[in-house]
Write a structure and sequence with these properties.
The chain is mainly alpha-helical and 143 residues long. It has seven helices and three strands; from the N terminus they run αβαααββααα. The protein has a three-stranded antiparallel β-sheet. A hairpin with a 2-residue loop joins β2 and β3. α1 packs across α6 and α2 runs antiparallel to α4.
C-alpha cells in the first residue's frame, strides 16, 4: 500500500488532501541531464548506422572513426553511462509532502525519507483527527 493510501486509510472520513511531489529541478540540471541522455542515444544511433550517414553525405570515414566503430563495446558502454548520468542529474530525489496545502515534510530540509508513522503523527497534530485504531495496529503504529 502506498504511503498516501495508508494515511488516508488511517484517517477515514477526514477531508484530507495529501500531495507528495518531487521538488522541481533547476533549468541547468534539466538541460544537462537531457543533453547527456540525448548524447547517449546519438552514440547508440551512430554505432548502428554510422557509416551509412557518412556515405549518404558523401564523406569518407576517418581512420580513427573506423577503428572506434570496429570496437562497438566501448560505444555501447558510453551509451549506458550517458543514459545513467543523464537520469541521475535529472532526479533530485527530493520531494515534499503537503497536507491541505500546508508543507508537512520536505526531504530537502530533513535529508531523510519520511516514515508513515511520522507523517501520520504530523497529520494528527495538524488536523486533530484521531487515527483508526485497527489500521494503526495493522501498520504497527502507536499513537
Amino acid at each position: 500500500m502506498e504511503d498516501k493510501a495508508k494515511l488516508l486509510a488511517l484517517f477515514p472520513g477526514g477531508e484530507l488532501e495529501i500531495k507528495g511531489e518531487y521538488y522541481p529541478l533547476s533549468p541547468l540540471r534539466a538541460v544537462v541531464g537531457s543533453s547527456l541522455t540525448y548524447s547517449g542515444y546519438a552514440v547508440l544511433a551512430f554505432t548502428i548506422i554510422g557509416t551509412s550517414v557518412l556515405g549518404a553525405l558523401g564523406m569518407v570515414e576517418p581512420p580513427w572513426l573506423k577503428k572506434l566503430r570496429e570496437q562497438r563495446w566501448p560505444l555501447l558502454a558510453l551509451f549506458f553511462l550517458a543514459n545513467t548520468l543523464g537520469s541521475s542529474v535529472r532526479t533530485s530525489g527530493a520531494y515534499e509532502v503537503t497536507l491541505n496545502n500546508e508543507l508537512i515534510f520536505s526531504k530537502l530540509k530533513t535529508g531523510a525519507v519520511p516514515a508513515v508513522g511520522a507523517l501520520a503523527k504530523e497529520v494528527a497534530r495538524i488536523t486533530s483527527l484521531q487515527p483508526d485504531p485497527g489500521m494503526a495496529q495493522q501498520l504497527g503504529l502507536n499513537f
